[in-house]
Design a protein that fits this description.
about 70 residues, mainly alpha, signal, Putative secreted protein
């Protein structure tokens, strides 16, 4: 069950990343826009990292509870 949720989260974050890449002004990248784009990608990757680590912690807690 947990792994399914993580997989869906990963798919969703990849979809968001693709959406941001397509919406980003690649045709005319002004420095300000490029910086904005990089920041949004950084934020997204941080969110994904948080979700993955948090999910792993939750799974560990769940397995510990199941054992105990």
């Amino acid at each position: 069950m947990h792994s399914n949720i993580h997989f869906l989260l990963l798919l969703y974050s990849l979809f968001l990343l693709l959406l941001m890449l397509t919406m980003a002004p690649i045709c005319y990248p002004t420095p300000h826009k490029t910086l904005e784009w990089r920041n949004s990608i950084g934020l997204l990757s941080r969110a994904v990292d948080y979700h993955l680590s948090h999910g792993a912690n939750m799974a560990m807690a769940g397995s510990r509870a199941a054992v105990a």
